[in-house]
Amino acid sequence: MALVIKNGLVLTFDPGTLEGAVIPGGAVVVKGNTIAAVGESKEIEEKYHGAATIDASGKIVMPGFIIAHTHMPYVLGHNQPVDFTRLTSFWDMLQKMGWEWLEDITTGEGVYAATRYAAVKMLKSGTTTVCDLVEGPNALPGILEASVKAIDETGIRAQLGYEVTERVPGMSIRETLDPGMAEKGFRENMRLIDLLKKGGSTRITPRIGVHTAYTNSMGTLKRARSMADEQGCGIQIHIAEIPRAFLVEKYGKSAPRVLEEAGLLGPDVVAAHCIDVNDEDLEILVKNGVNVAHTPMTNSLGGNGVARVPEMIEKGVTVALGHDCFFTLDTAEYMRYTYLVHKAHNANPMVIPPFQLMDMVLGKGAKALGMEHQIGSLKTGKKADIIILDPDSPTPVTPESVFSYFTMTFTGRDVETVIVDGEVVVKDHAMTTVDETEVTNRCVEQGRALWRRNGIAV
């Protein structure tokens, strides 16, 4: 049966943010897991008389948001009462907060609980697709099965992979790297690929995870490219999130140069961060068609600096938005920070106008994930990933003002209904697929268990 969403301010974002039709009193028809029609409500209702309906009068109907880089299990480390005086640099934060206090003591049960919680928070604030890079070397093998279970239950769409790294838990990467650790990561990614080939959720697709150039040998980087080519699944990786001096000290060259020489870069690569890049590095990203997942809030948290996003966009780089699963997971928060931080950093209020911001979480996000023909806009034949917003605004939300609403007023609380793959997963601001209280309680329980493994009495 068809579902007709009628009488809304429909934002199609097709074929792009600026060119996409804005339809006051518009309607969208969902049949199965796809969009069957988009147009004016009067015409749609005549054609689909008797179909189930959602009345979106006074509301916004638009595609779901896309987050191109995150680590959903990281929510277990939120608010952990550790000694922050030990974290004087990003390098400290990575080794202690990221590895020692979180990833190295992560369990499969923790991944399952945290992924469900993160997915719920993202869905309720309008994110319908996420690219998740899972880490947890001491929870191998089988850690991705926990992720798959959580994603299946909540109803979010995801690209998923495990982080391939030669890092040995508990040992300094300056002194020891072990290709055997990378081998475990490759096997975990192949387990996921084989699992998904056998059937199950069509909302989950694999994307091989690679940590960085500085935690892997050239042989491992080349193998990641070979596997991605053989499986046709693409790569997700962190690039240039730390000062280039470390890479230059190790290799005599920057991360983009190392990765290009390894043959890893290409248009099927989603590169998170890309902060400390010079002109040559930026040209390497452009030349190889690399997609960038911009994560400004976690970059700021680590004192890493501000990525050259306006220049990237000007040079034609596909820039999407990511968030590492820090902070609230409300997409509006990351959107607004992105909109503002580049204006402040460049002392230029004209950079990152609203249409570019919206593009990052919609069309460019879809393109970065290689899914531009499936998601990112409302168009007949695309996947039915749709959100309905009930704007809490002090002024009218009209076709002329709606883009400003997203930069000035919008919060995740405005998201009323979320449809993923044709299924209503959020209705009247509440999840329909899982018990939110149970999800939260189980995540808190696993957070408490992880903290205890760090010697924190809780």
What would a concise description of this structure say?
It contains 16 helices and 18 strands. The chain is an alpha/beta fold and 458 residues long.
Question: What do you see in this structure?
Answer:
This protein has 458 residues and is of the alpha/beta class. The protein folds into 2 domains: 2-64 and 377-427, Urease, subunit C, domain 1 (Roll); 66-368, Metal-dependent hydrolases (TIM Barrel, Alpha-Beta Barrel). The chain has 16 helices and 18 strands. The chain has helices at 41-47, 90-100, 108-124, 143-154, 179-197, 218-231, 244-251, 255-261, 279-287, 296-301, 309-314, 331-346, 354-361, 363-368, 402-408, 436-453; strands at residues 2-11, 22-31, 34-40, 52-55, 60-63, 65-70, 127-134, 157-164, 204-206, 208-210, 235-239, 269-273, 291-294, 319-321, 386-389, 415-420, 423-427, 430-431. The protein is globular, with a radius of gyration of 21 Å. The termini are far apart.
Strand and helix map with partners:
Elements: E1 2-11, E2 22-31, E3 34-40, H1 41-47, E4 52-55, E5 60-63, E6 65-70, H2 90-100, H3 108-124, E7 127-134, H4 143-154, E8 157-164, H5 179-197, E9 204-206, E10 208-210, H6 218-231, E11 235-239, H7 244-251, H8 255-261, E12 269-273, H9 279-287, E13 291-294, H10 296-301, H11 309-314, E14 319-321, H12 331-346, H13 354-361, H14 363-368, E15 386-389, H15 402-408, E16 415-420, E17 423-427, E18 430-431, H16 436-453
Parallel strand pairs: 1-4, 1-5, 6-7, 7-8, 8-9, 8-10, 10-11, 11-12, 12-13, 13-14
Antiparallel strand pairs: 1-2, 2-3, 5-15, 15-16, 16-17, 17-18
Helix pairs in contact: 3-4, 3-16, 8-9
